């Protein structure tokens, strides 16, 4: 299973429309669009999970493709590094 990062999405995109786009390249297991915690507004990126071979095809085909006037940024998702947390720096 591969997790794919999809960036530069138009704010009008829905999970269904993103699923349909990626389904042209194979089986889609999950789709998640990311919203701002405070406003609930779309942040312009999301994640798609697909089997490895399908994900490779989708990345190859969709990276740079126009969607709603925006060139999509599509690549394999990288794990977010775990930060130290919100403590205050002290001497």
Automatic annotation (TrEMBL):
Residue ranges of every copy of the RRM domain listed in the record: 2-79
Keyword field contains Nucleus: no
Protein name according to UniProt: RNA-binding protein
Residues covered by region (Disordered): 68-91
GO molecular-function terms, A-Z: RNA binding
Source organism: Steroidobacter agaridevorans
Cross-referenced SMART domains: RRM
InterPro entries tied to this protein: Nucleotide-bd_a/b_plait_sf (IPR012677), RBD_domain_sf (IPR035979), RRM2_NsCP33-like (IPR048289), RRM_dom (IPR000504), SLIRP/GR-RBP-like (IPR052462)
Family annotation (PANTHER family): HETEROGENEOUS NUCLEAR RIBONUCLEOPROTEIN 87F-RELATED (PTHR48027)
Keyword terms, alphabetized: RNA-binding
SUPFAM superfamilies reported for this sequence: RNA-binding domain, RBD (SSF54928)
Pfam families, alphabetized: RRM_1 (PF00076)
This protein's record includes keyword Transcription: no
């Amino acid at each position: 299973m591969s997790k794919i990062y999809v960036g530069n999405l138009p704010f009008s995109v829905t999970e269904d429309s993103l699923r349909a786009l990626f389904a042209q390249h194979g089986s889609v297991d999950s789709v998640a669009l990311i919203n701002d915690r405070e406003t609930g507004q779309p942040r312009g990126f999301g994640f798609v999970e697909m089997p490895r071979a399908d994900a490779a095809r989708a990345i190859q085909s969709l990276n740079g493709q126009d969607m709603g006037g925006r060139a999509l940024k599509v690549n394999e998702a990288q794990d977010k590094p775990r930060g130290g947390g919100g403590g205050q720096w002290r001497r």
